[in-house]
Write a structure and sequence with these properties.
Layout: H1 2-12, E1 19-22, H2 24-33, H3 36-41, E2 48-52, H4 79-86, E3 90-95, E4 107-108, E5 111-112, H5 116-121, H6 127-133, H7 142-149, E6 155-160, H8 166-172, E7 175-178, E8 198-203, H9 206-216, H10 237-241, E9 247-252, H11 262-278, E10 281-286, H12 291-309, H13 332-343, H14 346-358, H15 365-387, E11 393-397, H16 406-412, H17 420-429, E12 433-440, E13 446-452, H18 458-468
Parallel strand pairs: 2-3, 2-6, 9-10, 9-11
Antiparallel strand pairs: 1-3, 4-5, 6-8, 7-8, 7-12, 11-13, 12-13
Helix pairs in contact: 7-8, 12-14, 12-15, 12-17
The structure holds glutamine.
EC number: 6.3.5.7
GO molecular function: ATP binding; glutaminyl-tRNA synthase (glutamine-hydrolyzing) activity
GO biological process, one term: glutaminyl-tRNAGln biosynthesis via transamidation
Length: about 475
Amino acid sequence: SAVRTAINALQRYKVLNTLTNDCFDKALETEQQLSNEQKNNSPLYGRPILIKDNYCLQDIYTTCASKMLANFRAPYTSTIVQRLIDSGCIIVGKTNMDEFSMGVASWGVFGPVGNPWSVKKATNIDEENLKKLLHVAGGSSGGSAAAVAANFVSIALGSDTGGSVRNPAARCGCYGFKPSYGLLSRYGMIALVNSFDSPGIFTRNIDDLILTINAIAGPDGEDATLLSKPFERFQSSTELLKDKKKITIGLPDEYDINKLSSEYRSCLQDLVVQLTATGEFTFKRVQLPYASYSNAAYTILSSCEIASNMSRYDGIKYGHHTNNIDESKDTYEDILRKTRDESLSERVRGRILAGNYYLLEENYEKYFVQSQRVRRGVTNDYTKVFEEDKVDCLLAPVVSDDPITHAEYEQSDTIFTDDDIFTVGANLAGLPALSFPVQVSSKGFPIGLQLIGPFLQDQALLSIANRIC
Ligand code: GLN
């Protein structure tokens, strides 16, 4: 059975640490109850899938890879997860991630996700030694990306706030799609930065992406930021291929950063040469002057929203609650402090602290308001290249070099990287973006690139991708 095969693969490659918790028994039971007739009629019916552990699934642990939520069972199911269940998908587990989606290594309280390509390269090595050789899978949705890339399942959900779907997709070698802001409901997806957060999808081909979007998009009264107009189903990839219009693709100068390795730069240039030769594509250099400020604006704005969002984790209504209470003198603040000290990593607490600092009355104008202006500038830059330079989409790197090992990451532990410049722009402006695998590097890692399209031109973007890939 399809579910059994997925479970076997997940168990066999446990060393990759892709799951935070599983629903193997329930999945097998659900599969038993499927009728063959329904299975044949719907391509999603009976499909084993995985969802990032920041999506609520009723009665199942939803941990965000944090000690804070280690014992939290969601009381309800997220809208898009429910729609996948209704389409016949079978959830086999929740995937590993960075704590509360902060980071690029998918390394929360359950330890790091391993890059499947490390395993592919290593032969005759026992599990313990292999563990020491693993490279990062990217993040924060690395468990989902690794599981799809390694063919454990064909579809997985992630979330993308500043690149958390596109980054691990590029690192692991699969498709990672972050749609336009407002296309997919965020209801039941635990918020990191509400104004940037978008659900995202991992697959190994564009057909599965389209199938998944068609199953989950559409109005939802539970998410006020969702587009209210009815969703028009995306056409299948064969339909999309009939569109023979010549495509103009923009290459932003600002994304050609120093850190971009020569191999990754060549990968992009080679693709440009190849596509130009087909006669169907033209390329154009374009400028996004605000891009150089986008990492700063992202850091500040995300921290501010995080500070506000995380205030719900006080350990009173749900989540971790300290046992170390001195009834005679501890105030509410003392209990709150102990609860958070015990259950949130330094990284998460640091982000909350930074956000509260930026939001202090004397800093508000200097940081928050100024970053909002940059956000507007970034958005206008994109609008300008799409409207005035008349490019259909942009082609850009996702990361600038091969992944480092877990050991190296431990030394350098950082949430933000220079590479964020490639990804955060689409979140600041709410644009659709698709990371896709292009080639394998000399050291044996996948190199991914991304397409970024105009707001709500999601179908057109997938159509272009379909012609490229
Ligand atoms: N590195 C980004 C951050 O920590 C990733 C966020 C995301 O997309 N979830 O903010």
